[in-house]
Amino acid sequence: MGVARIQLEALKYILDIHEYTPIVSNSGKSYGELEVAMIPSVIDCQTEVEDLEEEGVLGKHMEITTQVRSVRGLSFDAVQSFKSFFVRWRILSREWTKSVCFPLDSINPTIGYQSRVTAKVTRDLCKFFCSAALCIEVSHTTILVVFSTSSHNLTIIPLFFLPSYFCAGMGKR
């Protein structure tokens, strides 16, 4: 689908971020907005901190919880065309944080996925926060995600395994 961007400067000042940010494709098409929250905290500091560059904070560790909560404003065509989607991002790591696939069953699907990273507070980290953005990729899939309400199990069925008569009716609501 596209990428949602969150500016990170607020993290330098230990401020929570809670934003709806546009999901924009490579061609410039908007696919709605992604709700993202980022909650920073300094782990091993006994006093209240307002800036990571304060005396006594450099060298400490901070934790950042990133929550991807929901999407709002998807087009009905996108919901019918894409059966499910996932999100992924990298922050302070070489490895991707990737969610499971979520069903696209409405124009405002709930995600509720989060991850937590820990980093040592350095001047380079402060500079990074002041000039960087977190890019969250929102990707659609050709996989149908089916939830079983009785056992809360998740079943993933590639669409090519389904009979054509079943797939033909999937777009109707």
Could you name the CATH topology?
Immunoglobulin-like
Number of domains: 1
Q: Output the radius of gyration.
A: 19 Å
Please give the alpha-carbon distance between the first and last residues.
Answer: 22 Å
Characterize the main sheet: 5 strands, antiparallel
The CATH class, by name, is Mainly Beta
User: Helix segment count?
Assistant: 4
State the low-pLDDT regions, or none: 147-173
CATH architecture: Sandwich
Averaged pLDDT, please? 82
Encode the helix/strand succession as letters: EHEEEHEEEEHEEEH
Given the helix and strand composition, which structural class is it? mainly beta
Overall outline: elongated
Question: Strand fraction band?
Answer: over 45%
Count of distinct strands: 11
Account of the 3D structure:
This protein has 173 residues and is mostly beta strands. It has one domain: Immunoglobulin-like, CATH 2.60.40. Helices cover 14% and strands 46% of the residues. It has four helices and eleven strands. It has helices at 9-12, 76-81, 123-131, 164-168; strands spanning 2-7, 17-24, 30-42, 61-72, 84-89, 97-98, 102-103, 110-120, 133-141, 143-147, 154-158. Strands 1, 5, 6, 7 and 9 form a five-stranded antiparallel β-sheet that branches. The longest helix is centred in the C-terminal third of the chain and has 9 residues, at 123-131. The radius of gyration is 19 Å and the shape is elongated. Residues 147-173 have low confidence and may be disordered.
